[in-house]
Amino acid sequence: MKILVTGGAGYIGSHATLALLDAGHEVVVLDNFSNSSPESLKRVGELAGREAVLVEGDVGDREALTQLFDDQEQISAVMHFAAFKAVGESTEKPLAYYNNNVGGSIALLEVMEEFEVRDLVFSSSCTVYGEPETVPIKEDHRVGAVSSPYGRTKFLVEMMLKDLCLSDPRWNAAILRYFNPVGAHASGRLGENPLGTPENLIPFICQVLAGKLEKLFVFGDDYPTSDGTCIRDYLHVMDLADAHLKALEKLSERPGAFFVNLGTGRGSTVLEVVKAFEVVTGKKVPREFANKRPGDVVEAWADPSLAKELLGWSTTRDLKEMISDAWRWQSENPRGYDT
To answer: 11, 97, 150, 337: which is the annotated catalytic residue?
Structure first.
């Protein structure tokens, strides 16, 4: 099939693009490079032995989208990754997040409808659950009680897709709620390339160990967990990319809208991740405890049983492999994609 990947030069999008190419699909990438680099797609092409078609543009630009669908005949489905994703930044720039994440999705869906392309894999997030009432989290857990504009944009697009599929049975949407994607391609050629100071734990530790940051700040040490630090469910980005292929296959069965958690089903505390880093790298992670961050939930990990039942998908890589691959990427690309 020919698949349009919005945000395909970004962290998750580039790994999904590689997985699609490796599976034999044709890929068209739309990206404005606001938080990514064309270098990632160059490397994807080298790894796959063939390249995706690149269209530089914004997902919210209806004219550019119309031109893309006009030029690229027979697009079968869309994987939609083009979203701003920093929780902290979303509280400072809420209009930018609503405009890009919600407005951009509306523009994309309208143009898809115009060209009769009605299969979509949507990149959502476990943030839609807010502070979970129970763990592990199942898909029928309450949603919408989120604490950031970022989370609310994901929830709004989810509901929009659900309503769209209910209104027209020709539409199908795989809504994938990620927990905490980490790691990198095993080659060391693709990885996470955050602009500025990373907001997420594993790239932050990588930069500390690389000497780019002085120390890790651990936000809170008195949570009701085994060591007082937050618990999260980390999954390898290549396992996540594989889930997108499985979701794409499921769309051919015309399932309407469905929601799936993507995680390992196991939680790790911040300090457990730090200790695992020290074992894998042989390096001490300098750290300091700091005040809790507003909006951080105590613990969140997935019940991944529906993903296995519905998609035939489960994770294959453990925390040690996630850390090894993340550290290889950091070590071999100290400046990210800035070669």
So the answer is: 150
